[in-house]
Amino acid sequence: MIEYRTLRVALLGAGSVGSQVARFLLEDGDELAKRAGAKLELVGIAVRDPEAPRDTDLPKHLFTTDADALILGADVVIELMGGIEPARTLITQALDRGADVITANKALIAHHGPELFELAERVGAQLLYEAAVAGAIPIIRPLRDSLAGDRVNRVLGIVNGTTNFILDRMHTLGESPEEALRIATELGYAEADPTADVEGFDAQQKAAILASIAFHTTVSVDEVQREGITGITSQHIRDAARSGYTIKLLSVCERAVTESGEAAISARVHPTLVPNDHPLAAVHGGNNAVFIEADAAGDLMFYGAGAGGVETASAVLGDLVTAVRRHVLGGRGLSASMHLQLPMLDSDRVLTRYLISVEVNDQSGVLAELAGIFSARGVSLATLEQSIPVQTALDAPAADAAEQPEAEGSVAPRATLIIGTHLATEGALKAVVEDLRQSAAVRAVTGVLRIERGA
Ligand code: HSE
């Protein structure tokens, strides 16, 4: 019979993920030992309040409020408390003592990853964080290890389940944004304060992490452009559907080329029109998916649960087995390599496509004027669709279209134009939108959305 050595595991936090990790460790310890090559002893669980109600029944004697004492002598520390402090200090102390650390803390990795990885590298320990991005979906290890011999060109992620849930309900059930958010909150997808999700902060942190690994470059959260879904109306959803698109909040990380021909990268989060035949358009409900375009591997998609206690615990336990195997085999832990340090492309130089909806006066010469605006900025038109409302003359502009004051005495009938562009720089496209807003022919610019540009 194999004699396994025993490794001491300290757990920080017993929320929805932590309590499931503890349960697996206690119930499936023998099986995990066989997979990892060492016995795992859960030496304690640090929590703020040992009496707080929990998802699972865990032995009371494991609880402690003294996280500092708990991590002393631990071989592996699993941090599932969330937030920056005290998680950052505790992880630093644990790594300093040579313990491996596993965390699901995306904010900490996104904001303080470089200093923590540097410390881990220095002491030869491992810092693993599969659960920090897209919950149960294996995405960190595939990017860092499985694709280590390939060149990743783009990463497109639906990495926020709450916003996917809301947008999906708006598309499939015709719900208003307010109604969809209310249901997301009722079902526990959205927090009482949904700002981090709906304004894109959560997806921004995840994009910084994905871009860093994909491009071997430290990408800070501030370098990721961010736009949430709060500007998306039911009309945008209808216009998107009519043009064959589904709106998704995408984290887009891509390689680019500077004007002087140098390699660069960009990372951004924004609502995006995804063609209905793209695999990302079929990601429904609160699910996540990450689509990767790589030189040799081609297109890959990773799909599944992006949150949830038991689902996220799966990713944490996978990291635990990886960490324990290294302990058993010996040798240093290695972080993802950050050797390229590619520059970020200036946001105005990012190439993208827009779908712009404008309400115009339905008069001769209007189309020519609009075409002139696009052409003056060097933006080429790809598609154009016009619809004329049944009641035309004297119609007031739509309620969400009241950007430009009605010209006094204006009696012109109105029409809606939906204009799709070819690839152009973000700077040129923004200038076009500004020119459209200033144009006397345009009553209102009612929608400006980026189109997923394809490989
Ligand atoms: N709030 C996140 C989401 C889950 O809605 O996907 C945690 O990252």
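^ L-homoserine complex. The first helix runs from residue 16 to 27. Residues 392-403 have pLDDT under 50 and may be disordered.
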